Amino acid sequence: MKLTSPKKVKELINTYDLRVKKNYGQNFIIDENILNKIIKSADLNEEDTILEIGPGIGTLTEALARKVNNVIAIEIDKNIIYILRDTILKEYNNVTLIEADALKINIKDQFENIYDNVPGEIKVVANLPYYITTPLLIKLAQEQLLITEMVLTVQKEAADRFMAENGTKDYGSVTVVLDYYFEKDFIMKLSPAVFYPRPKVDSAVIRLKKHSEPPVKVENENSFVEFIRKCFSQRRKTLKNNLKSFSNCNLAKRELDEIFEKTEINERARPEDLDLFKFARIFNMFYNRHGEFF
Description:
By secondary structure, the protein is an alpha/beta fold. The chain has helices at about 5-15, 30-40, 60-65, 80-85, 90, 105-115, 135-140, 155-165, 175-180, 220-230, 240-245, 255-260, 275-290; strands spanning about 30, 50-55, 70-75, 95-100, 120-125, 145-155, 180-190, 195, 205-210. Helix 7 runs parallel beside helix 9 (about 175-180) and helix 9 (about 175-180) packs antiparallel against helix 10 (about 220-230).
């Protein structure tokens, strides 16, 4: 099978009368050189177990199946699933398909259903459906699977947010959360021409390597992620005013002043001005005083 051939991709779509769904972000990579670069950047070896989310008609799936012993693909679209069953799954016995919404399932449970012993290390390699990129990344970061690395094709605009520096307009809650979990690398920009159908925007390939230990200690990981999200919920406000608005502790001005002074954070700072370490500092102080404070 030659799924990187635009002609073959069009034939498949026509043969199965596939209605490509924009709401599922179905744009398939058809450039073999790009696929090879993605595979190379993931530094795959035969023993790796790969999780792919949104395999589409299987262009990346096929490239992965040729490199590693096990590929687990999660797909939501029943029409796409029918094509995968008729093509990739017939040709490669090392590909397992999970028919589900990746955002709604417990991926660890799915792995336990497949394996007697869940593989120790898992890599995620995927051309992510753009509409679920951010919530999916946070979900994968928090999954109780040993995901060591992710090489992902995402919308360029999303990549800019993920890689942003504090103090810039692209910097947001997802940037901070990813900084907590991963070391981040921008691999390459992709033009619409390497996809079929062509998207209207540029894409990018990024690599996220899981920290062996988070770069900073927080008192409660899940609460910290929620804290970051709420801090950025009203970007125009100062962080201090944001904390007042979402806290359920009826924080007195005196206490807020004291906390900002002790954490050495400017009381006029906005959320985008703080890096991961400053967020952790102020979160830990609040959490140690109030526990769940929102």
